[in-house]
Amino acid sequence: MMKSAGYTLIASFNPIHSIILKNHRRLSLNILNGNSAQSKNSTAYIRKHQLHTKVVMVAGQYLPPWFSVAPMMDWTNNHYRTLARLISKHAWLYTEMIAAETIVYQEKNLDRFLEFSPDQHPIVLQIGGNNLDNIAKATELANAYCYDEINLNCGCPSPKVAGHGCFGVRLMLDPKFVAEAMSVIAANSDVPVSVKCRIGVDDHDSYNELCDFIYKVSSQSPTRHFIIHSRKALLNGISPADNRKIPPLKYEYYFGLLRDFPDLRFTINGGINCVDEVNSALRQGAHGVMVGRAAYHNPWYTLGHVDSAVYGAPISDLSRRQVLEQYQVYGDSVLEKYGPHRPSVREVVKPLLHFFYSEPGNGLWKRKADAAFFHCKTIKSFLEETLVAIPDSVLDAPVAKAPSGREDLFANLSDLLPLPYETREQEQEVLYA
């Protein structure tokens, strides 16, 4: 049985008017439907309505994943996600990738890997692996933690993962296995499932090959949501960092998928660095946008605008000082909870190291932080010792105006769209007609 994404209750500011949308999906926009005046007017109305509606969470449902923070190894752990949720109430958060084998072999120590506070909802668990039995067992063990979605990593190009591990992006070369894995995950969980992948691997980088992967996985499993990193992966030994720079971005592949698979949901990822660019992608018709390193390296300005600019919530007067006061309570509780196995002060503070990005006092604050790590035993004492470097005007100011994005990020997409996809079955029907 295929799982449904469920119902989302959307109520306008006038409480008399409310509608229930089942399996809500954005309508195709300009680049997919031509440039008619009617299409433009419809697009403007839909986007305006989405941005200026009040969405009420009911029965465990949350606002749609129009904005999500990418899973990043060693970065999107519990500490970072706590900070991110203090800044944005509506962004969808992802765990860092956790290998299915880790979950299975650490069955007696699962809290260390899977536990999170209820405030982190909506949150997606990303797992990796190439063994169906371990994937099934890992999913079953994760159920107790009540994640909102389970995602399979088919996009990591790291030599440890895609090389020796034979999973991550290498799984794109075996869509039959991915479909089986997604079916196993869905069978052992009651939440939606999704796949995060690239647009290709090495020389397997044509648009039709990408579509073959999407078609086979979606037709042979309950998968209805794909997160598309709009670069291919190179498995020739280059670093993950180079795999985020050297292969060119091909957003036209992503928008081609919107056209050719209208019953699926696609989130775009790669090269989008601020909320202005997020909204640009949404205006072009993207179902959702995933942001990675910009949300980590500049969390205040990236996440601070998500709720208002993407979700239409009132502009917040939240200050950095207020966020730090709440994070300090969280951090010290973590240090007290785990006793001798507790994380270090440095580990808990790590997500804060970019909190004052480009602000006066940032350099001095980091130098004080380096010194404080050697002797501070609590987050409270750490902050008391280091925050003297940051002016009150920075600590007490609400998030400033969002930075402008690149205006040409999605330029000329209508001219770049690949030819419409035809499945192998369709090609055979034409051949023998």
TrEMBL record:
InterPro entries assigned to the protein according to its UniProt record, in alphabetical order: Aldolase_TIM (IPR013785), DUS-like_FMN-bd (IPR035587), DusA (IPR004653)
Q: Which SUPFAM superfamilies match?
A: FMN-linked oxidoreductases (SSF51395)
What Pfam families does the database record attribute to this sequence?
Answer: Dus
- Record-linked Gene3D superfamilies: Aldolase class I
Query: Key word Protein biosynthesis present in the record?
Result: no
Q: What is the lineage of its organism?
A: Eukaryota, Viridiplantae, Streptophyta, Embryophyta, Tracheophyta
Q: Which UniProt keywords apply?
A: NADP, RNA-binding, tRNA-binding
Protein name per its UniProtKB record: DUS-like FMN-binding domain-containing protein
Can you name one GO molecular function term for this protein?
tRNA binding
* Superkingdom assignment: Eukaryota
- Write down the species: Vitis rotundifolia
List residues of the DUS-like FMN-binding domain: 69-384
